[in-house]
Amino acid sequence: MPDLSAPWRGVHVATALPFHDDDELSVDYEGYAVHVRFLAEHGCDGVCPNGSLGEYQTLTDEERARVVRVAVEAAPEGFGVMPGVAAYGALESRRWAEQAGEAGARAVLALPPNSYRADREAVVGHYREVARAGLPVVAYNNPHDTKVDLTPELLAELHGEGLIVAVKEFSGDVRRAYEIAERAPGLDLLIGADDVLLELGLAGAVGWIAGYPNAIPDATVELYRLATSGVGADLEKALPLYRALHPLLRWDSRTEFVQAIKASMDLAGLRGGACRPPRSRLAGEVAARVVRETETVLALGYR
């Protein structure tokens, strides 16, 4: 069971969003609700709607708000919903955090300003604004896409002011886990990229905002539990599983991660489907690799 006093902990799936096969690629809300319930039934602790995997940048305001409401309504008791509230400006991010709270979410996931190379003062101001919504805020450090790096020093400042409770660490630099723990010992570390799950799990992560559980929840949740057992990770079991899954987990850190995960979902008999433009279906060798690597994992019995 998830820790209800810290609802950002555990395995929260950055959910892919299904679309109908029509001219507008309209959102399949019923299909999304089915997927949320499926993830709950297969051991996940919560979902993060409206992240990049949910293609939030392509949604209208009405669609984006409804996705959060659908996730909350579909979630069984004790299953967390932590929406992404990324936006161009701090005021808009705060409004999305307020909408999440009104819908029944208990925490939010917030990027720094993501279309503006913000300095320290702007980043702190951004999180002050989001925190005004009154929900616990998980910072999302993705310097590759935002061009803003939430360094351990800056995270410690944000946490010290009471603006954030955790960080989704997606820099790829696993060494940061130890400096974050030193500078901000009360700040929860969440695994932000699937292909550093074991490394950050061993370094003390207490949660994972995850991509590939969309397609293979049983195996990935088992891997997370083995790597973050709290009484000493079971490396004898975790390492061979991690090696077997790692070719797939790497896609979470690549440009094509949304298409790759949706393609893996389709191969696993789930509802992945098409992406909205500008993302298009994978083709050529990239598509062949995703198919090959997914089929290898499925043939090993991992689901």
From TrEMBL:
Species assigned in the record: Streptomyces rhizosphaericus
Highest taxon of source: Bacteria
Organism phylogeny: Bacteria, Bacillati, Actinomycetota, Actinomycetes, Kitasatosporales
Family that this chain belongs to: Belongs to the DapA family.
SMART domains: DHDPS
Pfam families for the chain: DHDPS
Name of the protein: Dihydrodipicolinate synthase family protein
Keywords, comma-separated and alphabetical: Lyase
